[in-house]
Write a structure and sequence with these properties.
The protein is α/β, with parallel strands linked by helices and 461 residues long. It is built from 19 helices and 15 strands. Helix 5 packs across helix 10. Bound molecules: pyridoxal-5'-phosphate.
């Protein structure tokens, strides 16, 4: 299995190299050269399996010779062993034909754990085999960083530096990043918003001397291995609701487009997905783009669903690549235009292709709070604000096809917003009740490439 860049000018890599690299050297993102297919019989057979067994079957064709079957099965087992729910990704029913896929039972209470726990295991296995050492730098709007620190803390051969926007993550998110004591993990509060963090990360990857000097590796949602891990729960949930014998639709609270793109991959593999709906908060660049055909960067307006506060949606480039018939030169041109002028216009053919695959909707702050309150009343379910954005949008698309809304975080990760909307302050699960008592360790840095690179050089092992 080979991986190619969305900008068409970087070498094709195998799974291991694509995972270790993250961003391609031409600035593009790696995608599989071909998407493996699962037959109806193979999909139907998932129904009787554990989450881990289903994960093995869905992901195996993508990893080529990187791990043996026995190794890969073992890594998957370890990745999900410390989740707080035996089903890993349980489904709950909200209303007739509306279901909630709870993706928040991992160690940091957000769906990011599904990918990050597995990627931690896979990095460790690959690095201990090669003897290499890497420096992982990640940018986070809150959940990726905590999931990465949790997954990589204490691992040999890896230093981890996480950039988060100072003052713009929730207290639980911040504490999950700043309280681990392992010396190989470092939380950096950057003076800027999430797009600034992500921009600095891209600058570091494009600074090849630095990249090679420290052995830079990326685990942001642009990393193909993360997208892959997220493909699994589309299969397990759809099969639980009757796929492949009937279609299932999904609504996905979206920021960087990684999670919903995983749904698209599931569909390409043969899973009968009906609608695939992008749900955004007031930072609605994706909804506007799908509506108007113009991708125009605005400024981030902080919201109560901070993990979706984004104006540059990195994984959207993967969707564009397919929409443009996999023409990397066109994608590279549009991305240059984005960098130079803050936007680009998608061709008619490409926007038609995108609209064939993705529907979209947005929820304002008031609509998000109202969805938290009304869902509590209707089904007793207390939603986090991100999941509430999804539920608000999904409700506009309910019909004969079962709808699954992805619940991307636990309400206790955002207790202030949830309490304000519902009157209920959700408690942390008991396994993490000490979080508020532990001392924090964090470095505040300006939005400046030199300062960041110096800090990283000086603090690697
Ligand atoms: C990361 C995140 C999202 C957005 O997911 P993308 O893959 O970036 O689109 C939504 N909700 C929560 C809670 C998140 O942590």
């Amino acid at each position: 299995m080979q991986y190619i860049s969305t900008r068409g000018a970087a070498p094709a890599l195998d799974f291991e190299a694509a995972m270790m690299t993250g961003l391609a050297r031409d600035g593009g993102l790696y995608v599989p050269a071909e998407v493996p297919q699962m037959s109806r019989a193979e999909i139907a057979a998932l129904a009787s399996l554990s989450y881990e067994e289903a994960a093995f079957r869905v992901m195996r064709p993508f990893i080529g010779g990187t791990f043996t079957d026995a190794e890969f099965g073992d890594l998957i087992e370890k990745a999900y062993a410390n989740f707080g729910h035996a089903a890993r990704a349980p489904l709950k029913q909200l209303a007739p034909n509306h279901f909630l896929l709870e993706l928040f039972h991992g160690p940091t209470l957000a769906f990011k754990d599904f990918a990050m726990q597995l990627i931690g295991q896979m990095f460790q296995a690959a690095l201990s085999r090669s003897g290499d050492r890497v420096t992982i730098v990640g940018a986070t709007s809150g959940d990726t960083g905590s999931a990465a620190i949790e997954a990589f803390k204490g691992l040999e051969n890896v230093d981890v530096f996480i950039l988060f926007p100072h003052g713009r993550v929730s207290e639980v998110q911040r504490r999950q990043m700043t309280t681990p004591t392992e010396g190989n993990v470092h939380a950096i509060a950057l003076d800027g918003d999430f797009d600034a963090c992500q921009g600095k990360l891209k600058d570091m990857f494009n600074h090849f001397d630095f990249r090679d000097e420290v052995g830079l590796a990326g685990v942001n949602s642009i990393n193909w291995a993360r997208v892959l891990a997220q493909v699994v729960y589309y299969f397990t949930s759809a099969v639980a609701l009757g796929a492949p014998h009937r279609e299932v639709s999904f609504t996905v609270p979206t920021g960087n487009f990684g999670d919903i793109f995983a749904g698209y991959i599931a569909k390409r593999m043969g899973l009968p997905i009906g609608d695939l709906i992008v749900a955004t908060n007031q930072n609605d660049i994706l909804h506007r783009t799908l509506t108007s055909g113009a991708y125009t960067k605005g400024t981030v307006e902080p919201s109560i669903s901070p993990s979706m506060d984004i104006q540059v949606s990195s994984n959207f480039e993967r969707a564009l690549f397919d929409a443009y018939g996999r023409d990397g030169t066109v994608v590279a041109g549009q991305m240059d235009e984005l960098k130079a002028s803050g936007g680009f216009t998608i061709s008619q053919g490409a926007i038609d292709a995108l609209r064939d695959t993705y529907l979209s909707g947005r929820a304002s702050e008031d609509e998000t709070r109202a969805a938290i309150a009304s869902e509590l009343k209707a089904s007793g379910e207390l939603l986090c604000p991100h999941s509430a954005v999804g539920v608000h949008v999904a409700r506009q698309h309910l019909g004969a096809t079962p709808m699954v809304t992805l619940a991307t975080a636990h309400p206790a990760k955002f207790p202030d917003a949830v309490e304000q909307a519902s009157g209920i302050r959700p408690p942390l699960p008991t396994r993490m009740a000490r979080l508020y008592d532990l001392p924090e360790r964090v470095t505040r840095l300006p939005d400046d490439l030199d300062a960041l690179e110096t800090f990283i050089r000086d603090n690697r092992a």
